[in-house]
């Protein structure tokens, strides 16, 4: 799938924006988010009537790739904010909920987050035990969510809880919870090997009151809400992987071009490695763009999102490793760009469904299509 002229122009616009406006500093990248909000980029695929730019999903994917090429932490914060932080409202919110929250998210006045994972429920999301006890006018939520991107920084969380654990996935319900709600506290912030600028935190809920007006969809629909959002979220993480892989290749090439043997036309081994990685980068791009374009056309498939995520994030890891080896001792220094690419890439293989889980999705879909 080749990008249209308009998509190519957008990609060039995003590259220019990212190189001029996205910094790769140390702290939570508020300034980056603010600059993106000024351009309307925090609501790229959100319709104009709800404060967004009304672009298609593929355009948003091109944006995440370019931002991640400069700063993968900013990339994932924006991806989570948009794919699984704002889309729940767009797809499943009532008109009143959209007016109340989606407009603020699209304008970047609010940062969105997604709270599904628990200590005993990661890959098996149906095993969540955070409870939602029905009370007059709403629910009381009690439980613990872990590893929540933008935890403590976000203004709005889509929280998944169960009205009855014995119902399994049929009990899971989605709720909109605002920062600062009584009963919601932010627990431990994780110290991670990469993505240092994202706050990955624990959320603790103790008798947290959520009015019925903040329930997304009907009771028991939360599991299908979460799964349908994750398909889009995975394409966003694929784009993040593309950005990291491209940055790692660019950095390695920059280093190689300074070497005398490279200038003299030698270093065949390195050239072959580079050729293989560059070919895989284009292949992963095609998978990612196709998954996004099919989603735009209303024929997105879980398998395509899983293939894109696996191909792009596994590649990011390998390209980062190659970059370290290529830069040799300069590449292994703590805080150097190659080490940052490597440490950032690892997390992309884990969140929004590990790459092992993606392979299960792919294999299941293949056997349904091809099996006799
Ligand atoms: C940096 C970071 C940010 C995150 N942000 C968020 C967020 O914003 N919101 C949120 O809700 N969650 C978030 N997560 C959590 C993430 O989605 C989970 O870590 C992920 O789904 C895996 O769950 P788990 O860690 O419990 O691993 P487990 O499910 O315990 O899996 C452990 C290992 O076993 C493998 N495995 C599990 N089941 C199978 C199987 N059936 N077959 C083969 N292998 C299997 C897994 O692939 C993995 O390698 C984040 C995680 C990280 C690292």
Order of helices and strands: HHHHHHEEEEEEEEHHHHHH
Write down the Rg: 21 Å
Please name the CATH topology of the largest domain.
Butyryl-CoA Dehydrogenase, subunit A, domain 3
Beta-strand segment tally: 8
CATH H level of the largest domain: which superfamily? Butyryl-CoA Dehydrogenase, subunit A, domain 3
Q: Please give the largest β-sheet.
A: 4 strands, mixed
List cofactors, ions and other ligands.
flavin-adenine dinucleotide
What is the mean pLDDT? 96
Report the β-strand fraction as a percent range: 5-15%
CATH class of the largest domain: Mainly Alpha
Structural class based on helices, strands and sheet pairing? alpha+beta
CATH architecture of the largest domain: Up-down Bundle
The DSSP helix count reads: 12
Termini separation comes to 29 Å
Shape: globular
Please estimate the helix content: 40-55%
Strand order across the largest sheet: 1-4-5-8
Q: Which parts are unreliable, with pLDDT below 50 for 5 consecutive residues or more?
A: none
Please indicate the count of domains: 3
Helix and strand arrangement:
Layout (H helix, E strand, L loop, with lengths): L4 H17 L8 H9 L18 H14 L1 H13 L2 H6 L2 H13 L4 E4 L15 E5 L2 E12 L6 E7 L9 E7 L5 E6 L10 E12 L3 E2 L5 H35 L3 H4 L4 H29 L5 H26 L9 H12 L6 H16 L2
Parallel strand pairs: 1-4
Antiparallel strand pairs: 2-3, 3-7, 4-5, 5-8, 6-7
Describe the 3D structure.
- The protein has helices at about 5-20, 30-40, 55-70, 70-85, 85-90, 95-105, 220-255, 260-265, 270-295, 300-325, 335-350, 355-370, and strands at about 110-115, 130-135, 140-150, 155-160, 170-180, 185-190, 200-210, 215.
- It is an alpha+beta fold and about 375 residues long.
- It folds into three domains: about 5-105, Butyryl-Coa Dehydrogenase, subunit A, domain 1 (Orthogonal Bundle); about 110-220, Beta Barrel (Butyryl-CoA Dehydrogenase, subunit A, domain 2); about 225-370, Up-down Bundle (Butyryl-CoA Dehydrogenase, subunit A, domain 3).
- The strands form two sheets. Strands 1-4-5-8 form a four-stranded mixed β-sheet. Strands 2-3-7-6 form a four-stranded antiparallel β-sheet, covered by helices on one side.
- The longest helix is centred in the middle third of the chain and has 35 residues, at about 220-255.
- Flavin-adenine dinucleotide binds next to strand 1, strand 3 and helix 12.
